[in-house]
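Exercise 7b. C-alpha coordinates:
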Protein backbone atom coordinates (compact mmCIF):
# COMPACT_ATOMS: atom_id res chain seq x y z
CA UNK A 1 0.00 0.00 0.00
CA UNK A 2 1.37 3.40 -1.00
CA UNK A 3 2.06 6.16 1.50
CA UNK A 4 0.28 9.45 0.77
CA UNK A 5 2.83 11.82 2.33
CA UNK A 6 4.31 12.96 -1.00
CA UNK A 7 0.83 13.40 -2.48
CA UNK A 8 -0.32 15.54 0.44
CA UNK A 9 2.77 17.71 0.15
CA UNK A 10 2.10 18.09 -3.58
CA UNK A 11 -1.43 19.19 -2.66
CA UNK A 12 -0.18 21.82 -0.22
CA UNK A 13 2.13 23.21 -2.88
CA UNK A 14 -0.85 23.64 -5.19
CA UNK A 15 -3.18 25.13 -2.55
CA UNK A 16 -5.15 21.95 -1.89
CA UNK A 17 -5.87 20.07 1.30
CA UNK A 18 -5.70 16.36 0.40
CA UNK A 19 -6.56 13.28 2.41
CA UNK A 20 -7.33 9.67 1.55
CA UNK A 21 -10.08 7.20 2.40
CA UNK A 22 -11.03 3.67 1.44
CA UNK A 23 -13.95 2.61 -0.74
CA UNK A 24 -15.86 0.43 1.71
CA UNK A 25 -19.62 0.66 1.13
CA UNK A 26 -21.28 3.75 2.63
CA UNK A 27 -23.99 1.69 4.31
CA UNK A 28 -24.81 4.12 7.15
CA UNK A 29 -24.86 7.08 4.77
CA UNK A 30 -27.15 5.28 2.31
CA UNK A 31 -29.60 4.52 5.09
CA UNK A 32 -29.51 8.12 6.29
CA UNK A 33 -30.15 9.49 2.79
CA UNK A 34 -32.99 7.05 2.16
CA UNK A 35 -34.52 8.02 5.50
CA UNK A 36 -34.43 11.71 4.55
CA UNK A 37 -35.99 10.89 1.19
CA UNK A 38 -38.83 9.06 2.96
CA UNK A 39 -39.31 12.18 5.11
CA UNK A 40 -39.69 14.21 1.86
CA UNK A 41 -36.80 16.51 2.74
CA UNK A 42 -35.58 16.85 -0.87
CA UNK A 43 -37.03 19.32 -3.37
CA UNK A 44 -36.45 16.88 -6.25
CA UNK A 45 -37.59 13.51 -4.87
CA UNK A 46 -37.32 11.80 -8.27
CA UNK A 47 -33.53 12.12 -7.96
CA UNK A 48 -33.47 10.42 -4.55
CA UNK A 49 -35.18 7.11 -5.13
CA UNK A 50 -33.43 4.07 -3.57
CA UNK A 51 -31.93 3.25 -6.97
CA UNK A 52 -30.57 6.77 -7.45
CA UNK A 53 -29.24 6.89 -3.89
CA UNK A 54 -27.40 3.63 -4.40
CA UNK A 55 -25.89 4.98 -7.61
CA UNK A 56 -24.86 8.18 -5.81
CA UNK A 57 -22.75 6.13 -3.40
CA UNK A 58 -21.52 3.54 -5.93
CA UNK A 59 -17.96 4.59 -6.77
CA UNK A 60 -17.28 1.52 -8.88
CA UNK A 61 -19.75 2.82 -11.46
CA UNK A 62 -17.46 5.81 -11.96
CA UNK A 63 -14.15 3.92 -11.92
CA UNK A 64 -14.23 0.12 -12.04
CA UNK A 65 -11.63 -1.30 -9.69
CA UNK A 66 -11.38 1.84 -7.57
CA UNK A 67 -9.53 1.12 -4.33
CA UNK A 68 -8.77 4.59 -2.92
CA UNK A 69 -10.36 8.02 -2.87
CA UNK A 70 -8.30 11.18 -2.58
CA UNK A 71 -10.54 13.88 -1.09
CA UNK A 72 -9.70 17.53 -1.67
CA UNK A 73 -10.68 20.95 -0.32
CA UNK A 74 -10.03 24.35 -1.90
CA UNK A 75 -10.56 27.59 0.02
CA UNK A 76 -12.89 30.28 -1.35
CA UNK A 77 -12.96 32.82 1.50
CA UNK A 78 -12.16 36.27 0.09
CA UNK A 79 -12.85 39.81 1.40
CA UNK A 80 -16.32 41.29 1.09
CA UNK A 81 -17.03 43.93 -1.53
CA UNK A 82 -19.05 47.12 -0.91
CA UNK A 83 -22.66 47.09 -2.09
CA UNK A 84 -22.78 49.25 -5.27
CA UNK A 85 -26.56 49.75 -5.10
CA UNK A 86 -28.02 53.19 -5.70
CA UNK A 87 -31.56 54.61 -5.94
CA UNK A 88 -33.36 52.79 -8.73
CA UNK A 89 -30.36 50.54 -9.33
CA UNK A 90 -30.29 47.80 -6.67
CA UNK A 91 -27.80 44.97 -6.65
CA UNK A 92 -28.40 41.47 -5.34
CA UNK A 93 -26.20 39.22 -3.24
CA UNK A 94 -24.29 36.19 -4.55
CA UNK A 95 -23.21 33.44 -2.15
CA UNK A 96 -19.49 33.29 -1.45
CA UNK A 97 -18.80 29.94 -3.07
CA UNK A 98 -19.92 31.02 -6.52
CA UNK A 99 -18.49 34.53 -6.82
CA UNK A 100 -15.85 32.82 -8.93
CA UNK A 101 -15.79 29.32 -10.40
CA UNK A 102 -13.90 27.50 -7.67
CA UNK A 103 -15.21 24.13 -8.79
CA UNK A 104 -13.68 24.49 -12.24
CA UNK A 105 -10.44 25.64 -10.62
CA UNK A 106 -10.53 22.65 -8.28
CA UNK A 107 -11.05 20.24 -11.16
CA UNK A 108 -8.04 21.70 -12.94
CA UNK A 109 -5.86 21.28 -9.87
CA UNK A 110 -7.17 17.79 -9.26
CA UNK A 111 -6.25 16.78 -12.79
CA UNK A 112 -2.70 17.91 -12.01
CA UNK A 113 -2.78 15.86 -8.81
CA UNK A 114 -4.14 12.89 -10.76
CA UNK A 115 -1.12 13.05 -13.06
CA UNK A 116 1.08 13.03 -9.97
CA UNK A 117 -0.70 9.90 -8.73
CA UNK A 118 -0.21 8.13 -12.04
CA UNK A 119 3.47 9.05 -12.05
CA UNK A 120 4.07 7.96 -8.45
CA UNK A 121 1.69 5.03 -8.10
CA UNK A 122 0.48 4.11 -11.59
CA UNK A 123 -3.05 2.96 -12.36
CA UNK A 124 -6.20 4.75 -13.46
CA UNK A 125 -7.83 7.87 -12.06
CA UNK A 126 -11.11 9.80 -12.36
CA UNK A 127 -11.57 13.39 -11.18
CA UNK A 128 -14.75 14.97 -9.76
CA UNK A 129 -15.74 18.29 -8.22
CA UNK A 130 -19.40 19.14 -7.71
CA UNK A 131 -20.04 15.89 -9.51
CA UNK A 132 -22.47 12.98 -9.21
CA UNK A 133 -20.85 11.30 -6.20
CA UNK A 134 -21.18 11.64 -2.43
CA UNK A 135 -18.55 14.32 -1.79
CA UNK A 136 -19.44 15.16 1.82
CA UNK A 137 -19.48 11.55 3.11
CA UNK A 138 -16.16 11.03 1.32
CA UNK A 139 -14.74 14.18 2.89
CA UNK A 140 -15.91 13.08 6.33
CA UNK A 141 -14.46 9.58 6.02
CA UNK A 142 -11.12 10.89 4.76
CA UNK A 143 -10.72 13.43 7.53
CA UNK A 144 -10.85 16.44 5.20
CA UNK A 145 -13.54 17.73 7.49
CA UNK A 146 -16.37 16.93 9.85
CA UNK A 147 -20.07 17.64 9.60
CA UNK A 148 -21.33 20.87 11.07
CA UNK A 149 -24.88 20.88 12.36
CA UNK A 150 -25.76 22.79 9.17
CA UNK A 151 -24.68 19.60 7.31
CA UNK A 152 -21.76 21.43 5.66
CA UNK A 153 -18.20 20.10 5.90
CA UNK A 154 -15.93 22.00 8.29
CA UNK A 155 -12.22 21.81 7.53
CA UNK A 156 -9.83 22.76 10.38
CA UNK A 157 -7.76 24.95 8.05
CA UNK A 158 -10.48 26.60 5.95
CA UNK A 159 -13.54 26.33 8.17
CA UNK A 160 -16.61 25.70 6.03
CA UNK A 161 -15.35 28.10 3.33
CA UNK A 162 -14.16 25.41 0.93
CA UNK A 163 -15.36 23.48 -2.10
CA UNK A 164 -14.85 19.72 -2.20
CA UNK A 165 -13.61 17.36 -4.87
CA UNK A 166 -12.27 13.84 -5.33
CA UNK A 167 -9.85 11.71 -7.26
CA UNK A 168 -10.85 8.07 -7.62
CA UNK A 169 -7.92 5.75 -8.23
CA UNK A 170 -7.28 2.03 -8.44
CA UNK A 171 -3.90 2.58 -6.74
CA UNK A 172 -3.93 1.28 -3.13
CA UNK A 173 -3.07 4.35 -1.00
CA UNK A 174 -2.92 4.28 2.79
CA UNK A 175 -6.14 5.86 4.14
CA UNK A 176 -6.38 8.59 6.77
CA UNK A 177 -8.64 8.40 9.83
CA UNK A 178 -11.75 10.57 10.18
CA UNK A 179 -11.48 13.66 12.38
CA UNK A 180 -12.66 13.21 15.95
CA UNK A 181 -14.29 16.65 16.07
CA UNK A 182 -17.87 17.85 16.55
CA UNK A 183 -19.85 21.07 17.07
CA UNK A 184 -20.46 20.19 20.70
CA UNK A 185 -23.47 22.02 22.12
CA UNK A 186 -23.32 24.93 19.66
CA UNK A 187 -26.54 25.59 17.73
CA UNK A 188 -25.86 29.00 16.21
CA UNK A 189 -26.49 27.78 12.65
CA UNK A 190 -29.88 26.37 13.61
CA UNK A 191 -30.90 29.65 15.23
CA UNK A 192 -29.55 31.80 12.37
CA UNK A 193 -31.27 29.99 9.50
CA UNK A 194 -33.87 32.50 8.25
CA UNK A 195 -36.36 29.80 7.25
CA UNK A 196 -35.60 27.29 10.02
CA UNK A 197 -34.58 24.81 7.34
CA UNK A 198 -32.16 23.06 9.74
CA UNK A 199 -34.94 21.10 11.38
CA UNK A 200 -32.57 19.27 13.72
CA UNK A 201 -28.78 18.98 13.94
CA UNK A 202 -27.30 17.71 10.65
CA UNK A 203 -30.71 17.47 8.94
CA UNK A 204 -31.88 20.01 6.35
CA UNK A 205 -35.37 20.36 4.96
CA UNK A 206 -34.32 21.44 1.49
CA UNK A 207 -37.87 22.52 0.69
CA UNK A 208 -37.22 25.43 3.06
CA UNK A 209 -33.50 25.98 2.41
CA UNK A 210 -32.88 29.20 0.46
CA UNK A 211 -29.59 27.81 -0.84
CA UNK A 212 -31.44 24.88 -2.41
CA UNK A 213 -34.41 26.92 -3.57
CA UNK A 214 -32.40 29.53 -5.50
CA UNK A 215 -32.10 27.11 -8.42
CA UNK A 216 -35.48 25.44 -8.04
CA UNK A 217 -38.12 26.89 -10.42
CA UNK A 218 -41.02 26.83 -8.01
CA UNK A 219 -43.37 29.21 -6.25
CA UNK A 220 -41.80 30.30 -2.97
CA UNK A 221 -44.09 30.40 0.08
CA UNK A 222 -44.76 33.85 1.51
CA UNK A 223 -43.02 33.17 4.81
CA UNK A 224 -39.82 32.34 2.90
CA UNK A 225 -40.21 35.25 0.48
CA UNK A 226 -40.24 37.68 3.39
CA UNK A 227 -36.86 36.52 4.69
CA UNK A 228 -35.33 36.03 1.24
CA UNK A 229 -33.55 39.35 1.58
CA UNK A 230 -31.61 40.68 -1.40
CA UNK A 231 -30.28 37.32 -2.56
CA UNK A 232 -29.88 36.55 -6.25
CA UNK A 233 -28.12 33.23 -5.76
CA UNK A 234 -27.35 31.08 -2.74
CA UNK A 235 -27.39 31.57 1.02
CA UNK A 236 -24.64 31.24 3.61
CA UNK A 237 -26.29 32.61 6.78
CA UNK A 238 -25.62 29.38 8.67
CA UNK A 239 -21.92 29.61 7.79
CA UNK A 240 -21.58 33.29 8.60
CA UNK A 241 -22.45 32.68 12.27
CA UNK A 242 -20.35 29.52 12.72
CA UNK A 243 -17.76 30.14 15.47
CA UNK A 244 -15.25 27.92 13.67
CA UNK A 245 -15.28 30.45 10.83
CA UNK A 246 -14.81 33.42 13.14
CA UNK A 247 -10.99 33.27 13.12
CA UNK A 248 -10.63 32.52 9.40
CA UNK A 249 -9.05 35.40 7.52
CA UNK A 250 -10.15 36.19 3.96
CA UNK A 251 -7.31 35.85 1.51
CA UNK A 252 -6.54 36.26 -2.15
CA UNK A 253 -8.85 34.60 -4.63
CA UNK A 254 -7.71 31.13 -5.66
CA UNK A 255 -8.95 31.52 -9.24
CA UNK A 256 -9.60 34.04 -11.99
CA UNK A 257 -12.16 31.79 -13.68
CA UNK A 258 -15.79 32.90 -14.02
CA UNK A 259 -15.63 36.05 -11.92
CA UNK A 260 -19.07 37.51 -11.15
CA UNK A 261 -18.32 39.07 -7.76
CA UNK A 262 -20.46 39.53 -4.69
CA UNK A 263 -23.13 41.76 -6.25
CA UNK A 264 -25.21 41.45 -9.43
CA UNK A 265 -27.33 44.23 -11.03
CA UNK A 266 -30.88 43.04 -10.51
CA UNK A 267 -32.62 45.20 -13.10
CA UNK A 268 -30.08 44.20 -15.75
CA UNK A 269 -30.77 40.52 -15.17
CA UNK A 270 -34.51 41.12 -15.39
CA UNK A 271 -34.13 42.80 -18.78
CA UNK A 272 -31.84 40.11 -20.23
CA UNK A 273 -32.94 37.05 -22.13
CA UNK A 274 -31.47 33.69 -21.22
CA UNK A 275 -28.85 33.74 -23.96
CA UNK A 276 -27.62 37.17 -22.88
CA UNK A 277 -27.51 36.08 -19.25
CA UNK A 278 -25.40 33.01 -19.94
CA UNK A 279 -23.03 35.02 -22.11
CA UNK A 280 -22.69 37.80 -19.54
CA UNK A 281 -21.85 35.42 -16.69
CA UNK A 282 -20.12 32.67 -18.63
CA UNK A 283 -17.83 30.14 -16.99
CA UNK A 284 -19.52 30.57 -13.63
CA UNK A 285 -21.86 28.19 -11.85
CA UNK A 286 -24.72 30.69 -12.02
CA UNK A 287 -24.76 30.30 -15.82
CA UNK A 288 -24.12 26.55 -16.00
CA UNK A 289 -26.45 24.47 -18.14
CA UNK A 290 -28.21 23.01 -15.11
CA UNK A 291 -29.00 26.46 -13.68
CA UNK A 292 -32.61 27.49 -14.30
CA UNK A 293 -32.72 31.04 -15.66
CA UNK A 294 -36.35 31.57 -14.69
CA UNK A 295 -35.43 30.68 -11.09
CA UNK A 296 -32.70 33.36 -11.16
CA UNK A 297 -35.18 35.94 -12.43
CA UNK A 298 -37.68 34.87 -9.77
CA UNK A 299 -34.94 35.38 -7.17
CA UNK A 300 -34.37 38.89 -8.52
CA UNK A 301 -38.07 39.72 -8.19
CA UNK A 302 -38.18 38.43 -4.62
CA UNK A 303 -35.10 40.51 -3.83
CA UNK A 304 -36.81 43.63 -5.22
CA UNK A 305 -39.82 42.92 -3.03
CA UNK A 306 -37.55 43.00 0.00
CA UNK A 307 -35.38 45.92 -1.10
CA UNK A 308 -38.55 47.98 -1.75
CA UNK A 309 -37.07 50.56 -4.09
CA UNK A 310 -39.93 52.37 -5.91
CA UNK A 311 -37.59 53.02 -8.81
CA UNK A 312 -37.81 49.34 -9.73
CA UNK A 313 -41.59 49.32 -10.20
CA UNK A 314 -41.50 49.71 -14.01
CA UNK A 315 -39.49 46.52 -14.52
CA UNK A 316 -41.57 44.70 -11.91
CA UNK A 317 -44.78 45.80 -13.61
CA UNK A 318 -43.68 44.19 -16.89
CA UNK A 319 -43.23 40.85 -15.11
CA UNK A 320 -46.75 40.93 -13.64
CA UNK A 321 -47.91 40.04 -17.17
CA UNK A 322 -45.23 37.40 -17.81
CA UNK A 323 -46.53 34.13 -19.29
CA UNK A 324 -44.56 32.23 -16.64
CA UNK A 325 -47.05 32.07 -13.73
CA UNK A 326 -44.30 31.86 -11.12
CA UNK A 327 -42.54 34.97 -12.42
CA UNK A 328 -45.85 36.83 -12.71
CA UNK A 329 -46.86 35.89 -9.17
CA UNK A 330 -43.44 36.85 -7.79
CA UNK A 331 -43.69 40.23 -9.55
CA UNK A 332 -47.14 40.90 -8.14
CA UNK A 333 -45.84 40.04 -4.68
CA UNK A 334 -42.88 42.42 -5.11
CA UNK A 335 -45.15 45.19 -6.39
CA UNK A 336 -47.48 44.79 -3.40
CA UNK A 337 -44.55 44.90 -0.97
CA UNK A 338 -43.29 48.16 -2.47
CA UNK A 339 -46.65 49.86 -2.87
CA UNK A 340 -48.18 48.79 0.44
CA UNK A 341 -45.06 48.89 2.59
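Sequence design result:
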Amino acid sequence: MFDAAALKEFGRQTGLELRVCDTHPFITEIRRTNRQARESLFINPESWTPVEVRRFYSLHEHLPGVSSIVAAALNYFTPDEPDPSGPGAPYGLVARYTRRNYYLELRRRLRTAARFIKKEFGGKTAVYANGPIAEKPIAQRSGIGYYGKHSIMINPRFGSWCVLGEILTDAPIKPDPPLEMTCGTCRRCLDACPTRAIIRPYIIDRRRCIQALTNWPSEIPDQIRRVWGNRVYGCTDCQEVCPVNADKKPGRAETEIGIVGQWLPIKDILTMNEEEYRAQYSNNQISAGWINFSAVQRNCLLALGNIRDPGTLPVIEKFTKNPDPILADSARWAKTRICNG
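Instructor comment: The chain has a mean pLDDT of 96. Residues 280 and 287 are 9 Å apart (CA to CA).
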